[in-house]
Amino acid sequence: MRSFSYERATSPGAAAAAAATTANAKFIAGGTNLLDLMKLEIETPAHLIDVNDLALDRIDETADGGLRIGALVRNTDLAADRRVRRDYGVLSRALLAGASGQLRNKATTAGNLLQRTRCPYFYDTNLPCNKRKPGSGCAAIGGFSRQHAVVGVSDACIATHPSDMAVAMRALDAVVETVRPDGTTRNIPIAELHRLPSDSPEIETTLQPGELITAVTLPKPIGGTQVYRKVRDRASYAFALVSVAAIVQRDGSGRVALGGVAHKPWRVEAAEAELPGGAKAVTARLFADAKQTRDNAYKLPLAERTLAAVLREGGA
Amino acid sequence: MAKVSFDVNGETHQFELDTRTTLLDALREHLHLTGTKKGCDHGQCGACTVIVDGRRINSCLTLAVMHQGDEITTIEGLGTPDALHPLQAAFVEHDGYQCGYCTPGQICSAVAVLAEVKAGIPSHVTTDLNAPVRLTNAELRERMSGNICRCGAYSNIAEAISAVAGRSA
Ligand SMILES: Cc1cc2nc3c(=O)[nH]c(=O)nc-3n(C[C@H](O)[C@H](O)[C@H](O)COP(=O)(O)OP(=O)(O)OC[C@H]3O[C@@H](n4cnc5c(N)ncnc54)[C@H](O)[C@@H]3O)c2cc1C
Ligand code: SF4
Ligand code: FES
Ligand code: FES
């Protein structure tokens, strides 16, 4: 690990300002992704800004009947919150499907959203990777790519976003609240937080340098049967090959977001109009522009079958 | 270098550490509490599990300087050879190990799992998110999945934990 200086920020505004004025600074929350990558020298910050004192660890009800989740709320606490279990079951389920009990106790809402890909070549510093080293090439294209994305890919990168939580938040139309180094705040719909890789896979989100996530808000509950189903290589403590978050209403309408298939949680609102036609019709729309590899082509039928199982569970 | 102080097994310790020092390395290299093990150093095995302010975490993926004022319990703080913690005794009784390397992490994790069930925290296999949690074998295995045992002592580990859970339930 490269050496770094360390400070504990005392307010969100001060944290964002420090991140913008200190060279090569990074926020650290739970540390479960950042420290992992620092040990491998994939992340090499010169300065860490610890945000754990920022009192952003509450879950409050909003004026319009939704929930405002502080950026530092731990994954365990979010999954266990009575209101989340009752009204946003898909979010509890997605969180509980991720990582391990130990990791969820540390992992934060913001850190989970901003965790980096699990592409094995991103982790192997001996091999080319445009995300780790822009312009070096992509070892996954033409390499071992069974974990990789099948849609929204580019010639530069075919990595997936590994978060389970983010997939459920996409289905719930969550909004990310931030503060920028100049003190201004803004709201970013989760659909606009993560980017597709395009020709700059090293830029993963639309956050500006030094911009701090302060909270994630959920709109008022929409009811329905909420399901999260994750398919992985072992029954627990493994990342998704494919996952489906769905909210199905009695009249058969609903929302569907997929994990493990793209560089961001994959939801195509137009595809949801096909729900009465069943899983095949929905996935046909979701994957209209799919570009699979020989190794990951299995994800297309797997996603369709997983969605079919979810829709059966949802009573559609 | 940075200064930090925290409690380990009821005693306050002051450190002056390289900021890069993980909590795991502070415990093992600085306090010589070598019960807590380093398996993978990347959050993938659970051998480094300790209990911080009542919650289990992987001590390899957290910096010592981030624990100012925290209360940390390691395997050495749970019990002693003369006065074993009930879970330590149950691991002996049920032969919940082979080489023993994962055992301190398994036991710290299990102590926290029983508290999590008591607190009503659901898991991936909990059927009804809005009903009280019952510690079935499936629940136990899911909740312990962050602790890998290379020797495959899982069935005896599960028996040891169930025995204690049954007694305290
Ligand atoms: C073995 C293992 C298995 C795992 N399995 C899964 C899994 O199955 N599913 C899954 O979804 N995840 C999984 N994870 C990933 C885990 O969920 C993430 O590591 C965790 O959510 C990251 O949160 P954190 O608070 O620890 O982030 P940190 O490591 O502290 O930070 C991550 C990134 O977010 C930035 N950041 C943190 N807070 C803020 C903020 N408030 N504003 C702006 N930037 C911020 C940091 O600068 C850093 O770049 C796994 C991890 C491990 C190690
Ligand atoms: S898929 Fe993306 S992250 Fe993986 S090697 Fe290629 S550029 Fe790197
Ligand atoms: S050493 Fe910490 S999880 Fe393996
Ligand atoms: S007893 Fe050997 S690793 Fe578990």
From TrEMBL, chain A:
The keyword Transmembrane helix does not apply. The keyword Flavoprotein applies. Residues 1-223 form the FAD-binding PCMH-type domain. Pfam families: FAD_binding_5 (PF00941). GO terms for molecular function: FAD binding; oxidoreductase activity. Keywords: FAD, Flavoprotein. It comes from the Bacteria. PANTHER family: ALDEHYDE OXIDOREDUCTASE FAD-BINDING SUBUNIT PAOB, XANTHINE DEHYDROGENASE SUBUNIT C-RELATED. This is Xanthine dehydrogenase family protein subunit M. It comes from Bradyrhizobium uaiense.
